[in-house]
Each structure stands twice: as structure tokens, then as C-alpha cells.
Design a protein that fits this description.
heterodimer; A: alpha/beta; B: 86% helix; binds adenosine-5'-diphosphate
Chain lengths: 245, 272
């Protein structure tokens, strides 16, 4: 067990988002958190990552380092891609030379060309920025990575490539991950386990192990799982009229 | 290889910066032409010609006492600039972070703004007499509100999403200020600082003139008393030159270096 949320409840300005939520991450496990827009997925992730304090319940962490990949790349506009990727290392107090070396290696892993590393975020395409954001998260050798709908804004072809990057990195480096998405096929593609958050403050309404391993499921497998689950009552909220992005 | 690329980029920037000076020079020559026309219309006693003025400037430059006076004025405006931007920016930044501090400091700044500058000079004269202190104080109160507003705006409009990103890596208050808030703040502060730099020169000369405390303002008072009009014009030109020098030779290059990331996205030819 790397991370456990116990009886978490949260409200914004008195308006309850969810109550009594339990969730845990095993070592090396990628859990997809899915739910309709506005159901509180980002809130769960922020609580898990310690960015906001929950009103009720507690978060137990059994790891050293975590990193977050946000929906937008959130690169610092005044730093080059290289310095942005090394940002987490800089915060952790790493010296300049080694941290830039690590940044360059991570940039290669996510498919950024060395020439792009001297550019400022404003000079990079949306996809390149998101690659840099993934590289920045991986650069600190995290034990747990939180992804908050990281690839919603990129086009379909690139989305697959970036998903594959995450799948490979998770398999190679054995970090645990909480992957928030509202896209069921993305969830089925990248995760070991799927958790559905209710849109009506009922907490987690389904918790399923996804057959097979991420990266080894064929498109056909994924399609069939998605088809079967989309007829499942637990998932109806995702698909009925309320579904949006 | 990197230092070479870096110095090349720097040389390119310096070339572009100097080249952009031509446009400025063209504007200045238009102004000089209008000045000359005015001179021909009203005569030397009211408006000495640009050339006469330049002669007077050259004569001024040869006087050893003038160097002393210019130095005194420069030091006073520098002190006023440093105090105004230092106190103003710090107070503004604190107000930007803390709602309570903002509620407390806003009225103070409003009151400072409401007092006419000439009243400050009178007060400064009473407090400091005929010393440089009155010029410095006048600059500080005249320029402090702009820096305060810049600091407040800059901190209040910081990108909270980037701040959350930095916190997700465990960055403390100081690191977050340095890497997330400060670079953003700079773009709000530069307009305030350039205005302050210009104000500092002008207000120092004014306060010196009124408080009779030497410096270029003191020279100006003497020249006026002697009806030495070319000298009056020369002193004005010198003050304007100092203000322009501060802005274009010191502040703008500094800003361009700090904000390279902003112009990086512009296509070639739009750079300035
Ligand atoms: N900072 C905030 N202040 C007030 N309400 C918020 C805030 N953040 C989120 N909410 C509300 O909480 C609910 C859940 O938001 P969020 O966790 O972002 O949903 P999701 O990520 O699933 O789309 C939404 O109704 C949203 O309006
Ligand atoms: Mg969200």
C-alpha cells in the first residue's frame, strides 16, 4: 500500500462534493479514477497530492516523492523547456549540472528533441508542452504520480502516443499512479484498476480490476471492455445526458 | 558552444536595440526642428535655438562645479528612486499577499496620493531645511504609490495554477516567490520603475530649486535669477538627457534581458 484515503469528505463553500470516500494505491498499481465532469475527480486528486486539505478523513502516505501532471502543462513561461523539466529537481535541491543532465535524459524519453530544450514554453506546441510536463514529473523519480486528465487537450493521435509513454514509464519504473480521466477507453487503456466516482455525492460507485495488463491489451480488448461496461448500471452516469468534457 | 551561442544572441539583441534607436532619433530631430521654428519666431531671448543650447551645454560640461551639482542631483534621485521602489514594491507585494494588509495600506497610499506634491516639498523643507533630504523625501512620496500599485497588482495577479504546480513539488514559500511570483511581478514593476526613474530626476530638480539646496535645481534657480536663458535651456536638456539615459541605457536593456522569454514567441521582424 503506497497511498490510502480513508473516509475523505470535502465541501467547497458549504457545498458537499463527496463524503466517506476510501481509495488506495498498491505499489506499482495504476488506478484510473473516472466520473462525470464536476463530480470531484480533481478535488480527490488534489487531496491525495496534498494540494488541499480535506474537511474530513485522512490521507496516509507510505512513499517519499510524488509528482503531479496537470490538465494544462503548467510550465513556467520564463524558463526554457530544459529548466522546466528540471524544476522539481531544483526544488529538491539538486545541483545544476546533474539536474540538467537528468532533464535531458527524461526529455529524450518523452520524445522531445534536444533542440527544443532551449526553447521557452511559448515556442512549443501544445503536445510538446504536455510532453515536457510529463518529463518534469518523471524527472524526480516519483514513487507516486498523479495525472489529472493530462491528455484531454491534445489531438487523438498524440493522445495515444502520450498514453503509451505513461504506460511504459509506469512499467519500467514501477511507480504507482492515480490517473484521472473522464474517458472510459483511456482509463481501460492505461490502468490496472478502475474506480468510478459518483456524480451525485455517493462516493465511489464501482471499483473494478481491468483484465490484462496495461500496454498488452489490444484495441479490440479495450473496445470490448468499454462496450460491456457502458451497459453496466454503475457506469450509466458517465454516459447519460450529463456527460460532457 | 553554449557561451558562443549566448554571446551571439546577446550581440543580436544589442544590434536590434541600437538599431531601434534610429526611430527615436528621427522623432527627436522632428522635435528639434519645431524648436528651431519656435526660436526663429520668438527670438533668442525667449527661446534660444537648439544650437545655442548645445553650445551652452558644452560650456556647462567644462565647469567643474557643474559636475559636482550633477553628482549631487544624481545621488539624490538615485536615493529617492531606491527608497521609493524598495519601500513601495515591498509594501505592495505584502498587500498583494495579505488581504488585511491591503485593507490597511490602501487608504494610506490614497492619502499620500491626495496630498499635492508641492505640499510635500513645503513639509520636507520644514523637516530637512536646505539639505538633500528634502529632495529625497519628495521623490519618495511622489513615486512610492506607483511602485506600491505595481507590486500589489503583480502579486495579486500571480498565476495560482503555477503556484500549485510548485507546491506539488514541495516548493516552500521563498522558492515559490523566486521562481513563480517574482518573474511575473517584474513585468508589472517595470512600468512603475521607469515612471519612477523619470519622476525621480524631475522631482529632485524641482525640490532642489525650491529648497535652494544646490544640485542642478540650484543651478537652475541661479540661471533664472541671472536671466541666462541659454543656460536654463541647457540645464533642462541635461536633465532630460539624464532621464532618458536612465530609462533607455539602464532600465530597458535590463528588462529586455529579464523578459527574453516573452519576445521569444514573437516571429522574426516583430521583435521590436
Ligand atoms: N476552488 C473551488 N471553489 C469552489 N468550488 C469548487 C472549487 N474547485 C472545485 N469546485 C467545485 O467542486 C466540484 C468538483 O470539482 P472538480 O473536482 O474540479 O470536478 P472534476 O475534476 O470531476 O470535473 C465542482 O462542482 C466545482 O464547481
Ligand atoms: Mg477536473
Amino acid at each position: 500500500m503506497k497511498l490510502r484515503l480513508e473516509g475523505i469528505g470535502h465541501a467547497f463553500l458549504g457545498r458537499t462534493v463527496f463524503e466517506g470516500l476510501d481509495l488506495s494505491l498498491d505499489p506499482g498499481e495504476v488506478v484510473a479514477l473516472i466520473g462525470p465532469s464536476g463530480c470531484g475527480k480533481t478535488t480527490v486528486l488534489q487531496i491525495a497530492a496534498g494540494l488541499i486539505d480535506p474537511l474530513r478523513g485522512r490521507v496516509r502516505r507510505a512513499y517519499q516523492r510524488h509528482a503531479v501532471v496537470f490538465q494544462e502543462a503548467r510550465l513556467l513561461p520564463w524558463m526554457t523547456a530544459r529548466d522546466n523539466i528540471a524544476y522539481g529537481l531544483r526544488v529538491a535541491g539538486a545541483r545544476k549540472k546533474p539536474r540538467l543532465g537528468i532533464a535531458e535524459r527524461r526529455a529524450r524519453e518523452v520524445g522531445l528533441h534536444p533542440n527544443d530544450l532551449d526553447k521557452f514554453p511559448i515556442e512549443l506546441s501544445g503536445g510538446m508542452r504536455q510532453r515536457a510536463a510529463v518529463a518534469r514529473a518523471l524527472a524526480i523519480d516519483p514513487d507516486v504520480v498523479f495525472f489529472d486528465e493530462p491528455f484531454t487537450a491534445v489531438d487523438v493521435g498524440l493522445k495515444r502516443i502520450l498514453q503509451d509513454l505513461v504506460i511504459e514509464a509506469a512499467a519500467r519504473e514501477h511507480f504507482s499512479a492515480l490517473f484521472v480521466t473522464h474517458d472510459l477507453s483511456e482509463a481501460v487503456r492505461v490502468a490496472h484498476r478502475l474506480v468510478v466516482l459518483s456524480g451525485h455525492q455517493q462516493g465511489i460507485v464501482a471499483d473494478r480490476v481491468i483484465a490484462g495488463q496495461p500496454g498488452q491489451r489490444s484495441d479490440r480488448d479495450i473496445f470490448e471492455i468499454v462496450e460491456a461496461w457502458s451497459r453496466d448500471p454503475a457506469f450509466t452516469e458517465l454516459f447519460d445526458g450529463g456527460r460532457d468534457t | 558552444m553554449k557561451p558562443v551561442a549566448h554571446s551571439l544572441a546577446l550581440a543580436g539583441w544589442a544590434g536590434r536595440y541600437l538599431w531601434s534607436g534610429w526611430a527615436g532619433a528621427a522623432g527627436l530631430f522632428c522635435f528639434a526642428a519645431a524648436w528651431q521654428a519656435g526660436h526663429e519666431f520668438y527670438g533668442s531671448f525667449v527661446l534660444p535655438s537648439p544650437l545655442e543650447t548645445l553650445d551652452a551645454v558644452a560650456a556647462l560640461m567644462r565647469e567643474p562645479q557643474f559636475a559636482e551639482a550633477a553628482k549631487a542631483t544624481a545621488l539624490r534621485s538615485l536615493a529617492g528612486f531606491a527608497l521609493a521602489t524598495g519601500i513601495g514594491t515591498t509594501a505592495g507585494a505584502i498587500a498583494g499577499y495579505s488581504f488585511a494588509a491591503m485593507r490597511l495600506m490602501r487608504p494610506i497610499v490614497t492619502v499620500i496620493l491626495g496630498v499635492p506634491p508641492i505640499a510635500w516639498i513645503v513639509l520636507a523643507l520644514i523637516w530637512f531645511g536646505s539639505t538633500g533630504g528634502s529632495a529625497v523625501l519628495t521623490v519618495v512620496v511622489a513615486a512610492l504609490p506607483i511602485s506600491f500599485a505595481g507590486g500589489l497588482e503583480g502579486v495579486a495577479t500571480r498565476d495560482r495554477a503555477l503556484d500549485a504546480m510548485a507546491r506539488s513539488f514541495g516548493a516552500g514559500m521563498w522558492t515559490r516567490f523566486r521562481t513563480v511570483t517574482a518573474p511575473h511581478l517584474v513585468s508589472y514593476l517595470f512600468p512603475a520603475w521607469t515612471t519612477t526613474a523619470g519622476t525621480a530626476w524631475k522631482v529632485t530638480v524641482m525640490a532642489e530649486l525650491l529648497s535652494n539646496s544646490g544640485g542642478i535645481g540650484g543651478d537652475l534657480a541661479t540661471a533664472r535669477a541671472l536671466f541666462d536663458i541659454p543656460r536654463v535651456m541647457a540645464l533642462i536638456v541635461v536633465v532630460v538627457a539624464f532621464a532618458l539615459f536612465t530609462e533607455y541605457a539602464l532600465l530597458h536593456p535590463l528588462r529586455d534581458q529579464l523578459e527574453r522569454w516573452r519576445s521569444a514567441g514573437l516571429p522574426w521582424g516583430v521583435k521590436r
